Request: fold
Amino acid sequence: MSQEILLEARELIKHKRIDEARKLLRTIPLDSTAQKWLAKLDEVAPEKSLTERVGEIEPLRKPKPIADVIYIEDTNRWEMFRQIGAYLSFLLAGFVLGLLVSNLELSVGDVSIGGCDSQMKNWWDDEAEAVIVEFLDTAETAGATSRGSLSPIVLELRGIQRDFERLDYPDCGQTERDLLNDGISFGVDGYNSFLGNQEFLADVQFEDATEKLTEAYDLLFDRGVFADIRLSNPDAYIW
Reply:
């Protein structure tokens, strides 16, 4: 049940429906992953307080006497000009700040300052996620398949491994990419060893795969990437 809720919450987060995701995650207070995700959401998209929400509501105003309106119109006109000037100054300051922030995206060596999290999110959404999900789906199928019928699935897993190896990736995300690649490789090797009746070796390889994939999941999460929950503990969800 928790896994289905986490998957649904993850889709909401991907579509920027943060409040809905937060509400859904709170329905499973005993799930450690849900609490971890809530903490991350509070970090990257803090929830508005009741005071802030009330402050956004336009208060009702009493109608002014007609005798006051003529005088107020002149006063408001000058106030309007003052506010326009302040707004233009604000826009100019924002433009200058934007230039400063964009400069932080410049690379120093192979490290992109301030921009790597964004690069990794784009890489995950545009390229890596589909391959990883395909691997997890196929590995889950392999885990429910008898030894005699496993051979074609292992070949399919090898093909997915090669697909992942061919993906381009941001230089600053090499650690995450290598962990994912090693985890996939160990997982495929584990099924191959199981296919060859080397069950002890298969167990060791599955443990190595779990360690690599879990570490990759944690690093991606720190960058604000909400990866497939199965990646957080393949030993529980997959093998």
